[in-house]
Amino acid sequence: MKGNFAAIALTVIGVLALIVNLDLIEIDLVNLLRKWWPLALVALGIALYFTPDEAARKSTDPADSGR
């Protein structure tokens, strides 16, 4: 999940930057960050909560099932 979260976040940021550069919408990034920065903490916490720890990864690894 950790890699997926980073990929999705980068994709969303890239799409928003492209939309702003094409003048399809106007976003005041500074004002947006001032108001919504706690949402980044919430998203990070949720991503870390759903990221399996090392023990869970090793126990569900199909390559280890033959040992």
For this entry, give a set of tags.
mainly alpha; 67 residues; 0% strand; 3 helices; elongated
What does this structure look like?
The structure is a single chain. This protein is an all-alpha fold and 67 residues long. It starts with a helix and ends in an 8-residue tail after the last helix. Helix content is 72%, strand content 0%. It has one domain (2-53). 0% of the residues are buried. It has helices at 2-21, 29-50, 54-59. It has three helices and no strands.
Brief summary:
With 67 residues, this protein is mainly α. 72% of the residues lie in helices and 0% in strands.
Mean pLDDT: 79
Shape: elongated
Task: Find the count of extended strands (DSSP E, 2+ residues).
Answer: 0
Question: Main sheet, how many strands, which sense, barrel?
Answer: none
Listing every helix as H and every strand as E from the N terminus to the C terminus, the arrangement reads HHH
Mind telling me the C-alpha Rg? 18 Å
Secondary structure category: mainly alpha
Low-confidence runs of at least 5 consecutive residues: none
Helix content: over 70%
What proportion of the residues form beta strands (DSSP E)? Answer: under 5%
What is the distance, rounded to the nearest whole angstrom, between the alpha carbons of the first and last residues?
A: 26 Å
Number of domains: 1
How large is the count of helical segments?
A: 3
